[in-house]
Amino acid sequence: MTRILKLQDITLEGPDLSGKTRLYYDLHRLSNFRWNIQDRSEISMAIYAEMYERSDSHLWWEKVYEKLGNLNHRYVLLLPEQQLLLERYARRGDEVQNEKSLIDLHQRFTEAVSKLSKFPTCIVVNITKENQSDVKHAVLDELNKVEQSETIDVTNQICSISNSSKTREVNGLSFALDLTDWNDYDTSVLEYEKEKQYYKRISEEYTKTIYNELEGNNEYNLPQKPYSSRRFVYTDASCISYINTHVRDKKITMNVVCRSSDAKNTIYYDVCFLQILFKKIQKIFLKTCDISRVIMKVRLDSAHIVGEVK
User: Fold this and answer.
1) Tell me, what CATH number does 101's domain have?
2) Relative to the CA of 291, which of 13, 51, 124, 212 has its CA 20 to 30 Å away?
3) What is the mean pLDDT of residues 112-139?
């Protein structure tokens, strides 16, 4: 299976003595240092800000929800049973926490789990005495499952994240797909009655722009070189509002911005169409360029559930 959705960063979260540091080393060892892993970040910062009554907790929660909208990132939130935490404390102690603060932290992280567990970009691990030795394998399996995502899985995640938001809308949701070895294109989306003329127009206009720039049919009467040009751009006020493709160091990247995305009914068709369009563009550049990597980066300025956001 081609892994199109590759994780770039993983953040381990949880109260003190939850096993983050051990998991950090276990994941690196079991995966041969496959991922960039961070021990604590925005969730802990938000919770500790509330715990110590700082005024910036809302800023950290904003960062949490922003990170939840990045499909190439995963939070792993460890939540041991309270009694297990206290037993670990009695056995090992802690340089910062005491029994009272540990119970407080456990409650705060439990509340965080109730809010964040519905997001597919947050993997929650409830730890008991019985399963604590299996945590590393359970987390590794979940991370591997993410990287086995196909297009329908990616778009289902987008829908789930949008549906999990209080407003049923997520601003700035982003993902990068590695399409270097991808061949499983769903060309049937080009016949989707609601969008087929729209897709046809974008494809024709954008490929025409690229050919014109390559031939020098522009205001400078200057043929553009694929390895240096920044002019292979499509813009429009419609939902798919911006596309920019460039070739650098044998890597072709198509950057896409969607102004508005129906996360439930249309996003699968849009992503499949963009994959097909990118393949078409890639063939144009392959005539003169050596390309070894194919990356599509997408930002959804408003991914929403239709009927909830006007």
Assistant:
1) 3.40.50.300
2) 212
3) 96
